[in-house]
Amino acid sequence: MKTFMAIGGHIGDMELTCGCVLATQALRGDKIITVALTAGERGNPKTMTVEEYRVQKVQEAKEFAQMLGGESIVFPYCDGELPDNQEVRLEVARLIRKYRPNVIFTHWKNSMHKDHATCSKIVIDAQFYASLDMGDKIPGERCYAPVYFCENWEDKIGFDPYILVNCSEGYDLWTKAIAKHWFIMNSKDFKYYNYYTHLSYVRGCLAKCEHAEAFDVQDHGKFSVKPNCFSD
Fold first, then answer.
1. Could you give the CA distance from residue 127 to residue 45 in angstroms, rounded to a whole number?
2. Which of 12, 108, 146, 205 is a good FRET partner for 125, with 20 to 30 A between their CA atoms?
């Protein structure tokens, strides 16, 4: 059994961008951990306060993860105010040590959203720290896991769909699970459900399967990463 950890700036980011892969791996018996560094609560509907929507979003993250037989973790930081500091990096590194993922998903480095770009930097550094002897700062045995960057409409600048992963097996579970998120199904600003479900068909055409999701890696990783790395 493998463990897949998806770390996003907000609840819903990873569920949309790598959720179909997560659902596929869950059906194959793997462990799924979703981590949101903020709840994304400032996208609240008019009928709810920011505080009320945060409670709802945390529950939505829990329901999504539970449908995949996994676990959700939400950090206490405010939407739009994710701190770019050492404390958060060490918190994420501790999670990596605790759950020992085989694969980590997160945002691409360039984004129109501050929290996405900050999250990407945090995860890369946390991956590095988790693999080092950091003494009492990070308990547990060292752990290294490769990082894959998800395709997100807000993180498009410089993103290269370097790896296409067949996730046809998990498509039905994924679409049922993301429907638990209010903003995915009801946002008037962007048709999240339509965009990401249709994108899975587009990437599937290129991967010669029904549904796929695309990922990028750091430039130095392109010398060693194989497209079939998720099924090895």
1. 35
2. 12
Domain holding 64, by residue range, is 3-231
CATH code (residue 97): 3.40.50.10320
Number of independent structural domains in the chain: 1
Interacting residues of 34 by C-beta distance below 8 A, sequence separation 6+: 5, 6, 8, 14, 15, 22, 61, 64, 65, 70, 71, 72, 73
When pLDDT is averaged across residues 38-56 and rounded to a whole number, the result is 96
How is the beta sheet containing 212-216 ordered, strand by strand? 71-77, 31-38, 3-8, 103-106, 147-150, 212-216, 163-166
Q: In the structure encoding, which two tokens stand for residue 105, read together?
A: 């998903």
3-state secondary structure of 91: helix
Asked if residues 165 and 21 have their Cβ atoms less than 8 Å apart, the reply is: yes
Residue 22 CA to residue 3 CA, distance in Å, equals 10
Instruction: Give me 81's structure tokens.
Output: 């105010």
Tokens 């991967």 correspond to 207
- Give the pLDDT confidence score for residue 19 in this predicted structure: 98
> Per residue in 127-145, pLDDT tens?
999 999 999 999 999 999 9
pTM of the model: 0.95
Report CA-CA distances (Å) from 110 to 39, 74, 113, 116, 117: 20, 23, 9, 8, 6
Residues 6, 47: Cα–Cα separation, whole Å: 30
